[in-house]
Amino acid sequence: MIAIVDYGMGNVANVKTAFQNLGYEVEITDSVERLKMATHIILPGVGSFKAAVEEINERGLLEPLRELANEKPFIGICLGMQLLFERGYENGLSNGLALIPGEVNIIETEYILPHIGWNQLQIENNNPSFATFQDKHVYFVHSFQARTNKEYLVATADYGTTIPAIVQKGNVYGMQFHPEKSGETGIELLKVFLEETASVGGQME
């Protein structure tokens, strides 16, 4: 079972459908016990970093999510990716999950914010698992971006500045764009995440 973390700020229905279309049993939950039973943890998100952290704390999920990320395949999507980092500065300073070193600040670009629409991926660090996604288009909606070390970058996008689009540290992944809104490319990217972490999360259910 794949668990989608429900903290009241995610586009959970579309994310659920995307994983169901890949043949997985999916549950939307904020129950720590149910999350512990899952093979994979999905952290979606739409909204502000600060509000998301407050909701996660209110539901008693902060420490459990940190612990689960050490044990299971874990992916943050859009705001969920930003929450993987140590801190964010949207509406003031807030501490994130600190699963990947770095912080989240407003996009410094001459282009209009938010960054909305289709943008091409540039694969970083010669990552062989994602090489076929070079120049593929995915769908972004955001005004803040992660700033992290190059070693954690799987893919970037150009929006008048370099934006981390896919990040990874061990079995923890993040996608700044919406794979569930990115057509076949988005679905294929989710498949790569599932395949790359299969030995950690167990077999498909």
Throw out a few tags for this protein.
205 residues; hydrolase; imidazoleglycerol-phosphate synthase activity; 8-stranded mixed β-sheet; glutaminase activity; single chain; Rossmann fold; alpha/beta; 32% strand; globular; 4-stranded mixed β-sheet; EC 4.3.2.10; GATASE
Low-confidence stretches: none
CATH superfamily membership:
Class I glutamine amidotransferase (GATase) domain
Share of helix, binned: 25-40%
Structural class: alpha/beta
Would you state the CATH class?
Answer: Alpha Beta
Instruction: Please tell me the CATH architecture by its name.
Output: 3-Layer(aba) Sandwich
> Distance between termini?
6 Å
Kindly give the count of domains. 1
Total helical segments: 7
What would you note in describing this structure?
With 205 residues, the chain is an alpha/beta fold. The chain has a single domain (2-201), classed as Class I glutamine amidotransferase (GATase) domain (Rossmann fold), CATH 3.40.50. The protein has helices at 12-21, 32-37, 49-58, 62-69, 79-82, 183-196, 198-201, and strands at residues 2-5, 26-29, 40-43, 74-77, 85-88, 94-95, 100-106, 115-120, 122-123, 137-142, 144-147, 153-158, 162-169, 172-175. The strands form 3 sheets. It has an 8-stranded mixed sheet with strand order 2-1-3-4-14-13-12-9. Strands 6-5-7-11 form a 4-stranded mixed sheet, with helices on one face. A hairpin with a 2-residue loop joins strand 13 and strand 14 (172-175). The longest helix has 14 residues, at 183-196. It is globular and about 45 Å long. The protein starts with a strand and ends with a helix. The mean pLDDT is 95.
